[in-house]
Sequence to fold (225 residues):
Amino acid sequence: QQQVKQSPQSLIVQKGGISIINCAYENTAFDYFPWYQQFPGKGPALLIAIRPDVSEKKEGRFTISFNKSAKQFSLHIMDSQPGDSATYFCAASMGGVDNFNKFYFGSGTKLNVKP
Amino acid sequence: NAGVTQTPKFRVLKTGQSMTLLCAQDMNHEYMYWYRQDPGMGLRLIHYSVGEGTTAKGEVPDGYNVSRLKKQNFLLGLESAAPSQTSVYFCASSPWHEQYFGPGTRLTVT
Fold:
């Protein structure tokens, strides 16, 4: 059973447009929601993360929107650039020492920003 | 700081052969993880470690073994490789919450 569901699987956006990737989860014990960016041939790298006590977090052109009641969170990339073309993964983890900081990843979204 | 490094970068194995993947981190992190990445399936946790001398099973542990004899190293072993283990393997380390990933090992089993 997949703990974190991510959509869409792939996304094509024109340069300057807004890219939106969505994730949904079931386990209300999750308390940390990161987004990772992965370029071909590289390992994933943390892009931005949010905790459930805030509804939005912004870092430059990247924004996470969090809806606790709907158990959904999304990544918005404003003014998308060709350099943003990569695969994006959402993830969730639970607090508490007994959970060992295990991440549950979404299946990934391949973003292609057309020049 | 090198961060998280993985050895080797690429490997081709025949069915039934064995190998060990090495992960090393120089950030003094307690937690280390091994994932496999397959198309359309995201990253799936194989095994993890919460400190030197400790290991535990993740989501997909069958066919793999691990060891963490030193805090900075986490080894992933395949005793008898199968074509289903063809994948890209990532190691990660973490102080807590944020996980730092290595560059990956692409393994092909023929």
